[in-house]
């Protein structure tokens, strides 16, 4: 069974040679982020995540519109933050992007707070659930009659929809109780951050059971960093070098800068760091050092090509069908992973029929 292998474009100033040490050449810019996307396409990656930042910066939807005409094959996984845009407007933008990409749009739905407008967890996830339901109807080309806590809409079917006439797949993550419930009811691909093999299996089992209660099935994705070199010693040395100039106070400042810095998922990444050995490895080839200066996905698969591939194949054997990978600097690690690992993986864009998940 093939897997979808995606890379990551650093729209949110998340690119370093030395973690936590800003480098003007790696700051988020149209040119730098465009180059990452083009490099990933040239190497044969299936998809690329365009993240959505918490602060004023590069906008994922606008960036996708700019880069789409430059692409021929790769998909775009465009992150959208529930509540930032009125849903009919968001649907129109996404349908337009899908047409610009000839049907190669995928959507990463994010349920975080908005800058300056924090919301308690339960209503925030209710807002996300309503957004996903209405967005799916509109992108399926359907009329909408929806009366909820956050959305109260009666709309005719859109005049212009996606290339396929159906909603692109929703990728959605979160391990809190309300996040899991929303994913089980409304997501297509449930995304997980790095964790130990037993913990991943526990989440997979739980999410399969929750989706089954709704008469649905989920696909599963895994978001992680990678550091791959010809030998394990070289990979470990590269990991050590990455954090060699990191000031722990600066790392804490970077982590707290994110609006989700107190979320259940972020706390779990901190627990992994705290339980790791002296060198930061929480299990074979899973290194938690990146989380010292990054909120969210905070661990990397580190090793030689065989070790990295074996780790990914172990996740695949558990039922994970999509990987969203990144590394520092993103252009360099994109090259290294494409050289050493990507050709050895049976990979292809994830094929999803989302029409039944209305």
Structural commentary:
This protein has 358 residues and is α/β, with parallel strands linked by helices. It has a single domain (4-344), classed as TIM Barrel, CATH 3.20.20.30. 39% of the residues lie in helices and 17% in strands. The protein has 11 helices and 13 strands. The protein has helices at 30-43, 60-67, 87-100, 121-139, 177-186, 197-213, 232-242, 248-256, 264-275, 305-318, 330-340; strands spanning 4-8, 47-50, 75-81, 105-110, 144-147, 152-155, 170-173, 189-192, 219-228, 281-283, 286-287, 300-303, 322-326. The chain has an 8-stranded parallel barrel with strand order 1-2-3-4-7-8-9-13, surrounded by 8 helices. A two-stranded antiparallel ribbon has the order 5-6. Helix 3 crosses helix 4 and helix 5 (177-186) packs across helix 6. The radius of gyration is 19 Å and the shape is globular.
How would you summarize the topology of this molecule?
Layout (H helix, E strand, L loop, with lengths): L3 E5 L21 H14 L3 E4 L9 H8 L7 E7 L5 H14 L4 E6 L10 H19 L4 E4 L4 E4 L14 E4 L3 H10 L2 E4 L4 H17 L5 E10 L3 H11 L5 H9 L7 H12 L5 E3 L2 E2 L12 E4 L1 H14 L3 E5 L3 H11 L18
Parallel strand pairs: 1-2, 1-13, 2-3, 3-4, 4-7, 7-8, 8-9, 9-12, 9-13
Antiparallel strand pairs: 5-6, 10-11, 11-12
